[in-house]
Amino acid sequence: MTTTLTSSAPPLGATVEVRRTGPSLPSLVGLEVRKSLSSRSGIAIAASAVVMGPSGLLLAALDAEFGWVAAPMGVVAMMTGLVLLALGVVSTAGEWTHGTVQTTYLLVPRRGLVLAAKSVAVALLGAALAAVSAALSLAVIAAVGVDYLNWDGWVQATVVTLAAGAVFAVIGAGIGAATANTTAALTVLYLFIMGVLPLVRVGKPELGDAVDPAHATMLLAQGMEETRSILILAGWVVVSSVAGWTLTHRRPVQ
Amino acid sequence: MITVSGLTKRYGDRTVVDDVSFTLEPGTVTGFLGPNGAGKTTTMRMMTGLVPASAGVATVDGRSYGELPNPGAVVGTLLDASAVHPGRTGRTHLRLLASAVGVPAARVDEVLHQVGLADAARRRVGGYSLGMRQRLGIAGALLADPPVLMFDEPVNGLDPEGIRWMRDLLRGHAARGGTVLLSSHLLGEVEHTVDRLLVIGDGRIVADGSVTSLLGADGVAVRALQPRALAVALEAAGFHVEREDDGVLVVADASPAEVGAVAAAGGHVLVDLRPVQRGLEDLFFQLTTSPKGNLR
Q1: What is the reported pTM?
Q2: Taking Cα atoms as reference points, which of B284, B150, B153 lies closest to residue B211?
Q3: CB atoms within 10 A of CB B201
Q4: How confident is the model at residue B289 (pLDDT cuts 50, 70, 90)?
Q5: Where does CATH 3.30.70.1510 sit in chain B?
Q6: Location of each CATH 3.40.50.300 domain in chain B
Q7: Which of B176, B196, B208, B213 to mutate to test the interface with A (most CBs of A within 10 A)?
Q8: CATH annotation of B2-214
Q9: Which residues of B touch A43 (CB under 8 A)?
Q10: CATH entry, B217-276, from 2.60.120.10, 3.20.20.70, 2.40.50.140, 3.30.70.1510
Q11: How confident is the model at residue B296, as a pLDDT?
């Protein structure tokens, strides 16, 4: 038997103003940006991404001279991108590691939309952080470089640094979503990009050059092998994003 | 109204939820009972789309959870209190949820006050006790004041005052026309909170009914000045009587009125007469330890 109770209290939802529809993609992107910057790990990664390039240049300047701006900026683009891999990983795999993915999917059950919002959010954040890093790095190069610095290609190097921030963050988000485990995703990515691929490039340079996103970033920033570099980076974005969506969209949230 | 029809979950050859069906009506608190591993949590996760069902459907007002335009505004869920980023403060966590659900940020302070966490709002969740995390999870579920609440083991970690608060919260929600599904292994808590019980064992619903019907009278316990004489009289009247060591007579399938009438007719002096009720615990173990037990 069912007992129906009544009360003089206000009816449910009468006193709370609630949006009737789900969040739009732009509002989800904003939410994901706030999530990324609301934890200490996210803030630490963001700070590292900003200071890694310029501080690396300062250290390098102790025993090297900068004559052509695009060369050290290529290294900055690569280093900043590698740091921002972690931002993407934490935004997706971190949710599985901490269990917060449960709340995320309870409020927005469309998993593809959530992954898209995360990818756009970390791309925007990555580009913004890389822009700050690029600006600081250019200032460092200008300060410690030789008297007659060669500024040829500095615009492309700067743009590539911003793009690398976005691209590597999206790659991290895709791999993080695919693995659903922060430690595993970071270990696999850094071991592969910084350990395996350099070795491959020593043994089989053609193969290594064809798949290494860090090397491709550095060359692209310096205006070399542009088409191939863009294809390599685009390939990484597509493969990681497809892997992330494929493995996420029906994965049980336990 | 929530309708669950034939919900089934298989992992390989193992069936953890088997053809579970029930409906939940507005204005009621339904207790979802079962031992660990019986399938309660998996059922609730399938209802909310977190775990894909192998078969069956669950709908809220005719739509699956994933088809609801803004699910958080319709169903408030607490499935795992630990599913919160430990590095965020309670307030930050709720503000993120408020943005996703689409309620004003000011609502966050209201629910923090409602669940008694206003003073801890600026502390990181990593420093919260289990009871505080439960309250934070409940606060998140209440943000939109949704018509449906679905809580999985919400009283874990709560102190007695917190358990009473929870009971009042859920009863109040039902009194306002809300629908509540509450799973718990704390049988006494469920007994005092719910209108209806769903008992699950080995992945199947083994009992579904009101608390009164499931825990209804199972005979009469009677004490008399001369119990032996009363027992003879009751047996002569066709009742089956069991004699307890302490002198109490338990009369199966009888009402207090029937036993009282036999006693009055024979001039027996009674010192105690009351219906014997099955405890929830007895019912629970009877149903969930017997694979064929089914009181639906």
Answers
A1: 0.86
A2: B284
A3: 23
A4: low
A5: 217-276
A6: 2-214
A7: B176
A8: 3.40.50.300
A9: none
A10: 3.30.70.1510
A11: 47
